Amino acid sequence: MSADNQNSLENTQQLLDEAEALIWGLLDENIDAASTERLEKLLAHNEVRQRYVQCVELHSDLQHLFNDKQEKQQETPPKSPVLGSLSDSFPPIAFPIQPGLNSLPPLSE
To answer: Source organism's superkingdom (predicted)?
Structure first.
């Protein structure tokens, strides 16, 4: 590889590294006006635009993944897979407990 090609690759990598830092700052809502202007100028390069799309996709995927995990942790699973639709007030209010009728028979000795 020639020295010119090596320098070109290094410059491109430095450009992408700078752009990626600015992109993540933008996605994390932690970027100032001067950095935003710099990112806009860097987006004139095709490689930077491709990196921008990759970072946005990753950011979106991570948000989706972690939002799903948080929602699953907040959900309470049913108490029983068979009777999971029953309310917490069991026996139901429509069938009140009546002494003598709902009691268990005595144990025989």
So the answer is: Bacteria
